[in-house]
Amino acid sequence: MAARSDENKTQATTADVGAFVDAVEPPSRREDARTVLELMRRATGREPVMWGPSIIGFGSYHYRYASGREGDAQAAGFSPRKASTTVYFADGFDDYAEDLARLGPHTTSVSCLYLKKLDGVDLAVLEDMVRRSYARVSSGAWPEEEQA
After folding, report:
1. pLDDT digits over 41-78, tens only?
2. May I ask the CATH architecture of the domain 17-140?
């Protein structure tokens, strides 16, 4: 059954997170994925769930856009992509400037943090960022107008 065009295409699945991580290539990206997986477990206190075929998510939140479109998404998550490990921050980076300055090698887009490799990344800073973002997004008090 095809998803309705107004539904979020990336939804929680029952796929095996461990099997997904075990298949990540190259091996260095797989080890980074295992590290981020454990970091996010600690930061969120949640067990991972696959969202779509390639995103590992922790918890969820409901969003509603001004257009009326709404759905559910992972409250914290990451994907070990070919070019980098992508860590998702639904709340964006406006409140993380000082953290990003201390994080180590990275790039960002609106809500994605790209880490080519974890060497040189301050994992304590990353864990704190994930913890704060997860708490904010999953609190239910996150303002709808901030959800882009």
Report:
1. 999 999 999 999 999 999 998 877 778 778 888 999 99
2. Alpha-Beta Complex (3.90)
**Confidence band (pLDDT; 50, 70, 90) for 30?**
very high
CB atoms within 10 A of CB 126: 24
Q: How far apart are CA 144 and CA 133, in angstroms?
A: 15
Provide the pLDDT for residue 141: 66
Distances 128 to 45, 75, 94 between C-alpha atoms, Å: 13, 15, 15
Main-chain dihedrals φ then ψ at residue 117, nearest 5 degrees? -155, 160
Distance CA 44, CA 52 (A): 20
Burial classification of residue 23, based on how many CB atoms lie within 10 Å of its CB (0-12 exposed, 13-18 middle, 19 or more buried): exposed
Query: CA-to-CA distance for 50 and 60, rounded, in angstroms?
Result: 12
pLDDT of residue 8: 61
pTM for the structure as a whole: 0.88
Domain boundary assignment for the chain: 17-140
Q: What are phi and psi of 49, to 5 degrees?
A: -135, 140
